[in-house]
Amino acid sequence: MRYIFLLIFVNLSINVAASDSITLLQRLEKTITNKNFYLKKKYEKIAILKLNLEKNIYGGNNHELYESYMLLFNEYKSFQYDTAYYYIDLAKEKAIFLKDSVKLSRAKINEGFVLLSSGLFKEAIDTLSSIPVNSLPKNIKFQYYAVTARAFYDLADYTRDFRYTINYVHKGNENLDLALENVEPNTNDYYNTEGLKKLRIQDWNAAEQAYTYWLNNLDLQPDYYGIATSSLAYIYSVQGFNEKNIEYLTLSAISDLENATKETVALRNLASELYKLGDLDKANKYISLAMEDATFYNARHRKIEISTILPIIEKAQLHKIEGQKNMLKKIVFLLIILALVVFIFSIIIVKQLKSRNISRKNLVETNAKLQELNTNLKEADIIKQEYITYFLKVTSDFIHKIDTLQKSTLQKIIAKRPDEVIPILKRYSVKKAREHLFHQFDEVFLKLFPSFKEEYYALFPENERADIFKTELLNTELRIFALYRLGIQDSSQVADFLELSISTIYTYKTKIKSKSNCKDTFEEKIMAIKTL
Hints:
Shape: elongated
Radius of gyration: 45 Å
Low-confidence stretches: 1-18
Number of helices: 22
CATH class of the domain at 29-274: Mainly Alpha
Mean pLDDT: 82
Order of helices and strands: HHHHHHHHHHHHHHHHHHHHHH
CATH superfamily of the domain at 29-274: Tetratricopeptide repeat domain
């Protein structure tokens, strides 16, 4: 019974670890998607440093100029080899000019680092060997021994020949011991060096403890975080803890991408592990990205290492694709048979539904036309009722005025007082009568189309919207298109009603349309304005 519970516990632990790995891989996918964002941040940081460099160049302070070159080198050292080497070369020149041996040694140590990163091991070791290490301050000595140790370790990893590697590893260990003598305890550099020492002497438990303590208790910068997680992944790999290996490789790859680090191994190693697990899609994607990074950085040895894995993963991916193609062929064949069956039944069904669909379509079209016709008739009926009432009233008023005028005039003529006829006639102003007519027309129209003015002016840019006189409901421009909306679209009829020439009406219409936002559909927009 105890054995069964233990087995269940182990299975649950494996499932939880697998679930965590999937979550981290999803996070990695998201980080890859945002890769250009992190690159942009990197270039923005570099741009600021370049601006400071320009200030120092023109400022003439050689010490500050040296530091500007070093800062730019630090940004490029794990990002792009050629540019990093360019700035470290400038820093060396400036140190020589200043006759500052410490600054020159610092520059050479960093030159050795970037040569290593590019795979130029002999050149790196030659450069480091030229440095007078005994005269250096303690913190610079640490950098020297740390980079020299890495040079021999990397050379051992690259050579992979026991006859030579044992000597390279021994030299690396010696330099690492010297580095530890020159570093402050309980610092990032200390735990990085201590962890690497335990890892290289294959004391896996001590190495794991050093890196784990480092991760959990110190504030790690992105480059240090990438080193710690990548190193832990290696430790778990050699001990056979595959889930933890993948977990820390993924964390390291995420850190490298977020920090825009191009000289890296995490993504390559992760691709290799996923290939072993059969996840060929991700393995192929990650190894291709790793090759892009190595090419971008110009890391010769990384490209060679990736080149040994890339064809294997690509071949497996192609084999998988071929298998999928064969499966797809079988599926397509079955689908063709199914499609034929469906096609035969479809013909039968289509024939039965065709006539029904045609009649239904006709019915829908007829209903739509009837609805539109009913709407138009309803609108026309409203307009007719309003304007019949309006014109009856206007006509009645006009007849009443004519009758009054006629009676008054006849009375004066019969009474032989013709001089009094002229004042009677002058009481009636044609201009005022026309203004009254327009005012009544405006009132009736806006009663029918209360939103006309707002919808009309919405067809124009803000700066082209004319002001309405306070005493007017509509102006001449609006009346022209109000008549158009009522269906009076003959320019001669509009001209007669408004007492304007036909050419003036044309001029108004052309000018107004040219100012609108919809020159080609202006009349359609006017006709689309609805009544109440």
